[in-house]
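Reviewers of the previous submission asked for a worked example of the structure-prediction workflow described in the proposal, so we include one complete record here. The input consisted solely of the amino acid sequence. No template or homolog information was supplied to the procedure at any stage.
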Amino acid sequence: MDKYDPDVYNGLHFDELKPFLDAKVQQYNTTKFIPTDPIQIPHLFSKKEDIEIAAFMTATIAWGNRKSIINNAHRLMALMDHAPFDFVMTHQPKDLMVFEGFVHRTFNAIDAVQFIKSLRHIYSSHKGLEPIFKRYAKEDSLQFSIHKFKTHFFEIEHTRRTQKHLSDPLKNSAAKRINMFLRWMIRPNNSGVDFGLWTTLSPSQLSCPLDVHSGNVARKLGLLKRKQNDAKALSELDKNLRQLDPKDPVKYDFALFGLGVFESF
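From that input alone, the workflow returned the following structure tokens.
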């Protein structure tokens, strides 16, 4: 894709935009970011599978008030005895009663129970989360992998209402939460923020977690023209972030998010 005309970059030429955003990545991609972000939840654990499940469950409820997200994610970990992988794999039907009364916005106890059952299926029948995403990965995208993951996640008996809590890019969703989860798992932990646990996949395949904050900042910078935060907008943003850094385009999530949330850019 050709570079945008420099004038669309909010007064910044392309050669000025990259250093500006790179500096913002350096500013926000540090361990100081962790205490303010839901990523703090998987950082409570050291075992790969515990980190994966904690991250996946936390990302699933990561919409709305950040304090509420973090508090409810802590509650989910407590309900799983702070041993999420062991709970997923060894739970008995009676153990699932602990989720009664849990609610985060529209994600409730029914959904939590279904997620636990589906996660056990993923680990038991598909050897875990990473192999599924690897199996369906494209050279420069994991969006088809997300679609196929959802298919496998709900290939067991499930509550229909819970399907809405896993987005599908093939249905034009930006899939912000699961793209965030994938960033956590795949980007190297050079700065101590992301985990770099999934070494069979590359940061170059990631897509930016597109939400209100990152979308608004991207539009002000001329990185995004589409008004809706959907799969088409994500594709547009991906292409332009890959111009800035084809090997690690999603590092700019830190810049876009930081500018939007902390600087009201």
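DSSP finds eleven helices and two strands in the chain. We consider this example representative of the routine output the project will generate in years two and three.
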